[in-house]
């Protein structure tokens, strides 16, 4: 019998089926039964160091952690099998000390005392590690990921090698991660050759909720993939008017565009041609290229398209915001616009 393709939670459930299964799991996958460290959010930055195997981690363990302590930072390294064998004893000691450090961070009795970073805490306990003053308490990432349960994992990357090295690690190692977000630096040139990697990675196909990246041909391909288009929210830092018009061709359900430029007079006919929309697209800060109130442009476009107010209506939610509801042949579309920033800039939500 093999548990090779099961995750930790499935192995634990299997272990409690009967005594025989419990003995099999204890003998072959004992780490699945060990006590885990609960972490609310873990941010991994692959860009801080020149070595692609070193990671910079930012951790928030719980609401209690937020209340009493600032966010904790530490370094981790993805070790090879040989490196793990050579430093196994030290890594285990360091991981036990790290568990004590997390309990220290969330213990209310230390709330009024000066906060110690992980480096300072490890240095204060160097005697139990048998190390000198110049040691760097770098956690073995393989050992760390086996000991923790992560509710939300966020990966930030500016370079291809570090990112794919980390994804390759998660593809080949078990982990307890509920929700996964990815933020790729806009300066990173994403090649179409990466499409197959996104498509075949088991880690990226399961429970991925956000992808932040710049608009490129690869982004259009990712938005067409079945396991991305309905469940993943795509975040783009900036899109111009041409990019936004091209975006309408994408079947992706959820999109957020940080800033951009747009001509509603040009966009509206294309938007009406693909009703029903059945998507949730947000544009928090758009540059208005029409030099006209957005609701006036939309009203004129709808009058030109439908000719009367029976198929659409405009609701004035406030002095600076309007909501349009369009219904034609059973198809529905809603557009919400807000001109809080003035005539030249507005917010828009299409759903």
Helix and strand arrangement:
Blueprint: H1 8-15, H2 19-28, E1 37-45, E2 54-60, H3 63-68, E3 72-77, H4 81-86, H5 88-106, H6 118-124, H7 126-129, E4 139-140, H8 141-147, E5 148-157, H9 160-172, E6 176-184, H10 195-200, H11 202-205, E7 208-212, H12 217-224, H13 226-229, E8 233-239, H14 241-247, E9 254-262, H15 264-273, E10 280-288, H16 294-306, E11 312-318, E12 321-328, E13 331-338, E14 345-350
Parallel strand pairs: 1-5, 3-4, 5-6, 6-7, 7-8, 8-9, 9-10
Antiparallel strand pairs: 1-2, 2-3, 10-14, 11-12, 12-13, 13-14
Helix pairs in contact: 1-2, 15-16
Question: Would you write up a description of this structure?
Answer:
With 351 residues, the chain is α/β, with parallel strands linked by helices. Among the domains are: 1-33, no CATH class; 35-42 and 49-149, no CATH class; 263-351, Phosphorylase Kinase, domain 1, CATH 3.30.200. It has helices at residues 8-15, 19-28, 63-68, 81-86, 88-106, 118-124, 126-129, 141-147, 160-172, 195-200, 202-205, 217-224, 226-229, 241-247, 264-273, 294-306; strands at residues 37-45, 54-60, 72-77, 139-140, 148-157, 176-184, 208-212, 233-239, 254-262, 280-288, 312-318, 321-328, 331-338, 345-350. Helix content is 38%, strand content 29%. It has a 14-stranded mixed sheet with strand order 4-3-2-1-5-6-7-8-9-10-14-13-12-11. The radius of gyration is 26 Å and the shape is elongated. It contains 16 helices and 14 strands.
